[in-house]
Amino acid sequence: MPTLAIHAGRALTPHAEIHDAVILAEEGRIRALGPRAGMELPPGTREVDARRLLAAPGFVDVHIHGAAGRDAMEASPEALAGIAGCIARHGTTSFVATTVSAGVPETLRSLEGLAMAIHSYPAGAAPAAECLGVHLEGPFLSSARRGVHPAEHLIPPSPGVLARFLAAAGGFARILTLAPELPGAEETIAAARSAGLVVSLGHTDATYGQAERAIERGACHAAHVFNAMRPFSHRETGVIGAVLTDSRVSAEVIADGVHVDDPALRLLLAAKSAESVLLVSDGTAATGMPDGSYRLGSIEVTVTGGVCRNREGRIAGSTLTLDRAVRRMVALGVPAAAAVQMATFNPARLLGMESRKGRLIAGADADIVLLDSAFNVVQVFVRGRELPA
Length: 389
Prior knowledge:
This protein is of the alpha/beta class. The chain folds into two domains: 68 residues, Roll (Urease, subunit C, domain 1); 299 residues, Metal-dependent hydrolases (TIM Barrel), CATH 3.20.20.140. It has ten helices and 20 strands. The protein is globular, with a radius of gyration of 20 Å.
């Protein structure tokens, strides 16, 4: 593969802005990044003229269930490839496949299949988003805040069950979302942390005190903040109060205009700053597809006007892509670099992968998205390979 040189009008690393920038990539990694003046290109370099565009790191989605009519819990190479190809066209170059609550045997089968699909993904396949692992959303969730997770599949947190999940995931488990107020949660948080997982608070009816105890024990993240959580009250602020005020916790949000209203987004940013907020899609199989009927795990969802709901009318994931989420944040007045950071560096840092993902720096994967002035995706490179138009 020849050296690639992308000449962009400006580049967001996202911590620095470089005008008239050149990104050099070799063998799937960024070799150098800096102003065009003085940048020496090796002989035979393939040059890409993007001087009218903005270069940013590829987006990283840590909470996505599906896309392109495929669901992560299908756990087949074909399903994973379908999801990866679809979201890559929207600038997402890395993702964490997310489960939904199901019976323990079914969850084990899905985790085994996902591990096999991730491990065996063919090196010569067409460029697509890279699956970085698995996010276990359930079954250790509150029945009071279950959203669309099937009540019959919810169980108390258990280190023993978690150990079975981790074994089935074959080292690819990255995030565990649970309700910290449930019996067994403290022991399960400890087990998850010992295994290197990020512990996320979600689908929870926890009080402020219960949430803080979980944070003290190692929980450091909150899933789709404001959604499927005890509502905030001035006398009992609940888990939202803990998330908003505790600097040890990062907060993911679904910025699609459906899950969270703009004033709540502004409140979250004012409380946490762009340093601690992550943009996620919570995307389903309906992402990139027309309105119709789809599956979210075992749940039937209907999409009307791009909004996913189950038979009871509850919101069931989304059809959001991270390019749309970035555009929404910019429209709210968030600086471009901060909006990009929330979709790139922050999720990579949550996973402990910030040296490889979510940044334009020497040595990182050459995951690069080129955006126009309205932050629409024009061109995508995944580990230095251009995504076909």
